[in-house]
Amino acid sequence: MRLIAVAILLSSCALAQTGVPAVGCGPQDVAFTVSADKSQHPTPAPPEGEAVLYVFGTNRFPGWGFEGDLGVDGRWVGAVTRGRDYFVLPISPGEHHLCARVVSRTGPFLIPALKTDDTSNYFLRTKPGETYYLTLRVGRHSGFLQLLDPDKGKRLLASSTFTTSRIK
Questions:
Q1: Which pairs count as long-range contacts for 82-85, CB under 8 Å and 24+ apart, including other chains?
Q2: Which of 35, 42, 134, 136 has a CA 20 to 30 Å removed from the CA of 67?
Q3: Terminal-to-terminal C-alpha distance of the chain
Q4: Confidence at residue 61, expressed as pLDDT on a 0 to 100 scale
């Protein structure tokens, strides 16, 4: 009887690790190409009936090639690669499940960086006409999402570089 209980326990642990995506994340095989664009600095107001989400990258390990990806409600929507990067996203009002993941590129001197599958989740309730500021902190092993107060977000926006990201 104990043997059966142990077998059931082990099989349930194996099923729990079968690559089920975290809440808010998209498919694991999606990758981005990220480009900084210092020629523009868009700061759009929320579109009629929607909200705006500014997403900032903060890299805790300058010199390492980490990318922070943001997922919203089960699909990847953008990425940042350096500290003081940002992208802007119109978002519908309501409840949203956000997900951050870190994708490792290379370390300094072309040393291969560590791979990570860690994700961070955040629940965000948006209202029409509102603007939200979110940091995606990129670390060696994980991404971390944090909502900023509007004053701090505006200050960070003024000193950040606009980026565009496209799915490869």
A1: 82/36, 82/57, 82/161, 83/57, 83/58, 83/59, 84/56, 84/57, 84/58, 84/156, 84/159, 84/160, 84/161, 85/34, 85/36, 85/56, 85/57, 85/160, 85/161, 85/163
A2: 42
A3: 51
A4: 60
Nearest to 58, CA basis, from 140, 161, 136:
136
pTM: 0.79
Q: Work out the widest C-alpha separation in the chain, in whole angstroms.
A: 69
Check if the beta carbon of residue 91 is closer than 8 Å to that of residue 120: no
The CATH number of the structural domain formed by 21-167 is: 2.60.40
Alpha helices in the chain (DSSP H): 2-16, 150-158
Half-sphere exposure for 147 (CA within 13 Å, toward CB): 12
CA torsion angle 60 165 100 44 (round to 10) = 90
Domain residue spans in the chain?
21-167
Span 102-113, pLDDT tens digits? 876 655 554 444
